[in-house]
Design a protein that fits this description.
By secondary structure, the chain is α/β, with parallel strands linked by helices. Helix content is about 30%, strand content about 25%. The protein folds into two domains: about 80 residues, no CATH class; about 160 residues, GpdQ, beta-strand dimerisation domain (Transcription Regulator spoIIAA), CATH 3.30.750.180. The chain has six helices and 14 strands. The strands form five sheets. It has a six-stranded mixed sheet, with helices on one face. Strands 1-2 form a two-stranded parallel ribbon. Strands 6-9 form a two-stranded antiparallel ribbon. The longest helix has 26 residues. The protein starts with a helix and ends with a strand.
Amino acid sequence: EFEDRLEGAGVYYVRVDEKELEELKNNPKLVEEVMNEKISERLRTWLDLLTSRVDTRSVTTIVMPGNDDELFIDDIIRGYEDKGIIYPLDKVLEIEGHEVISSPYVNPTPWKTPREMDEKNLEKHLENLVSKLRNTSSSIFNFHPPPFNTHIDLAPKLTRDLRPMVVAGQVQYEHVGSKAVRKIIEKYQPLIGMHGHIHESGGMDKIGRTIIINPGSEYSEGVLRGFIVEVDREKLVNYWRIEG
């Protein structure tokens, strides 16, 4: 029961005896190996669940890593391509006539996660992706970080020891999204921007004519959030924020 609660909160766990616990305490490399093994195991469990519940031959199913994800998981996702899962990086996909480009990279964070770029290099990376499009105004930008200075990029302001800053009992927030992503959206005005990364800022906003969305997350509470986005070949028809 306890392990089920941990798994529901997104935690990785392993059973050990006292001897194994001491070995882990004294061997960071072993801890890393165990973590990577548990990450791989969890991802395969999710992908097996997905492919057992969804007809991925008739339903376009895209699985993309985020900035926290170690680079080795990309090969795991690619390993499910023969079951219909699409790994979207470094390619242009199409949904209902709309071109889709995807990027997992984010502007620098205090945690130095595996997929980060400074804003200058991130802008170059995104420009390279956009250059592959035929029609930018009809395209979908699936970029992990939200644009800077929007309703969907607010996160707690941190102290030097990475704790949320609290003033008069209230957590202080600041904009932490990507300036490069904002610049690219302002420049090309895609149909919609689909983002994540900032778990505290679920919602929507608008940059020019482009709708931008971030489902947010409360995974530690066992709550799954998302958006249903409806498009036809001409336009963005509708979008709904959902949770369960």
